[in-house]
């Protein structure tokens, strides 16, 4: 019988072991624990029919997810600015997707979220997004699969509006003062004073991207996250950081030194990416508009800049109150 009750695992097991044509075909899998015997037999009828159809050539087998990922790694990743990180994140999913078919994507996405409660929702979403992009790319550009199976992937909700900032005094007198690695300190400076994304934009900088004109240094990003050229002036307090470009180590090296410095500085709540947001806060406090902040941070949409809108009313209030009053104080 293709269906039997697995006493060890206390659930129904599907087994297929037959000769189809001139070849023996074997399949075995545990069925969901909640399934009844009737559901197990219904699965047997459907899956046995599918196996017969595939083995006899009447139906094409479903491609494996790993095929889509390999196509993405070979053809798309080399053209992505953050390709190295994308490849690393996809590698972390290999144990989960190995041997799985495209029509199992939805189940895999749910399982990954269930199995990793300690991971931040944003981290899970980023990794699954790379998987989603790989499957879509393989379907669109290499005709892998009979349709786009990513519609079954339910992504975790991410509350991404962190409101953690540091000012220049905290940067220099706390974080940098407790960093004993000059190269790591250079990254921390550039993250604050340029607002660049430290992993995908700062760590990948080359000397050719540093341009000096009339005593002003600029960093050129010809291929920033939203695909448009971007020029960033370098603040005088960050000029010495340019000497360390290109940076020698992988991101883990700088992460460890950041964690050590923030602990010593009493800034355990701070993340390195918060320095990008801190630049926005500093610019608003000195009179920049939300539109100008979006330009500095190279946002590709107004929605990206709206996360700082809670900081803006106080600035507007300050500007309005600078207007002289024409009314005399009312008599007491």
Order of helices and strands: EEEHHHHHHHHHEEEHHHHH
- Write down how many β-strands occur, each being a DSSP E stretch of 2 or more residues: 6
Count the domains. 3
The level of helicity is 40-55%
Class from helix and strand fractions: mainly alpha
Query: How far apart lie the N and C ends?
Result: 98 Å
Strand order of the largest sheet: 1-2-3
Main beta-sheet annotation: 3 strands, antiparallel
Question: Which range does the strand content fall in?
Answer: 5-15%
Overall form? elongated
Mean pLDDT: 84
Task: Let me know the CATH homologous superfamily of the largest domain.
Answer: Intergrase catalytic core
What can you see in these coordinates?
- The chain has 332 residues and is mainly alpha-helical.
- It folds into three domains: 53 residues, no CATH class; 88 residues; 151 residues, hpI Integrase, Chain A.
- 45% of the residues lie in helices and 11% in strands.
- The strands form two sheets. It has a three-stranded antiparallel β-sheet with strand order 1-2-3, covered by helices on one side. Strands 4-5-6 form a three-stranded antiparallel β-sheet, with no helix packed on it.
- α2 crosses α6 and α8 crosses α11.
